[in-house]
Every structure is written in C-alpha cells, then in structure tokens.
C-alpha cells in the first residue's frame, strides 16, 4: 500500500531528524541546531540548522524529504513565536529550536485517522 509506505517513511524521517537534533544538542552544551554560531541570543535560521546538521555529514547527509509534498524545506520559528497548531503544507518541516520541536508540515490524516502533524 503506497499510502502506508509514505506514512512509514514520514515517521522514519521524523525519527532521523529528532535523533539528529538531540545528538547535536548533546554535543553542544544543550544548544539545539538552528542558532547561528550556537548563540541563542541570535534568531535561529534555516541556514544555520542545515549547516550544523549536514556539514561533514556529522548528523545528516542531507535534509530528508517530506514524503507527501516532496519538500525538504524547513519553516523555523524564533523563540518568541508560538509553534503552529496545524500544518499548512508550505514546507517540508516545521521546527522551533527553543523547544527542539520538529513536525511534518502536511495537512490531513493518515490511514489510521491520526493527523500527520501529530506524528
């Protein structure tokens, strides 16, 4: 079943991303990826996140694709911004470094009725 394969791949990509985020923070005094030069007084950026996790294949070879929209892009939220309560599908992923929360940016529900955004 193609649908279930996409769901499994999305969950696996999230597991890989979450593991990379935790591993990076563990090696950087608890500072999650996304903050330029690991300076939490600076606004987080997609560029910092990507470089910190992929340079030298330290944590990821490349950003995984959202299996539903094919996007690898990340929508990042500054510390003061609330994390959205729902997906908009405009990027592959949604991420807030301050909380290390990363979610699949896809609307709808899976074959078991679970919101993709809740994976």
Explain what the structure shows.
With 119 residues, the chain is of the alpha+beta class. The protein has one domain. Helix content is 29%, strand content 9%. A hairpin with a 4-residue loop joins β2 (93-96) and β3 (101-104). The longest helix has 26 residues, at 2-27. It starts with a helix and ends in a 15-residue tail after the last strand. The model has no long low-confidence stretch (mean pLDDT 97).
- For the record, the count of structural domains works out to 1
Helix content: 25-40%
Largest sheet: 3 strands, mixed
Overall structural class, as computed from helix and strand content, comes to: alpha+beta
Proportion of residues in extended strands: 5-15%
Keywords:
119 residues; alpha+beta; three-stranded mixed beta sheet; 2 helices
Summarize the entry for a quick read.
By secondary structure, the chain is an alpha+beta fold. It has helices at residues 2-27, 46-54; strands spanning 74-76, 93-96, 101-104.
List the helices and strands and how they pair.
Layout: H1 2-27, H2 46-54, E1 74-76, E2 93-96, E3 101-104
Parallel strand pairs: 1-2
Antiparallel strand pairs: 2-3
């Amino acid at each position: 079943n193609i649908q279930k394969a996409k769901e499994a791949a999305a969950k696996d990509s999230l597991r890989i991303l979450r593991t990379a985020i935790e591993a990076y923070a563990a090696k950087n005094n608890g500072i999650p990826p996304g903050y330029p030069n690991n300076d939490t007084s600076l606004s987080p950026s997609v560029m910092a996140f990507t470089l910190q996790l992929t340079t030298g294949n330290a944590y990821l070879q490349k950003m995984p694709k959202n299996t539903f929209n094919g996007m690898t892009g990340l929508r990042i939220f500054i510390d003061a911004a609330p994390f959205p309560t729902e997906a908009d599908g405009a990027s592959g992923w949604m991420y807030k470094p301050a909380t290390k929360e990363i979610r699949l940016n896809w609307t709808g529900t899976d074959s078991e009725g679970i919101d993709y955004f809740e994976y």
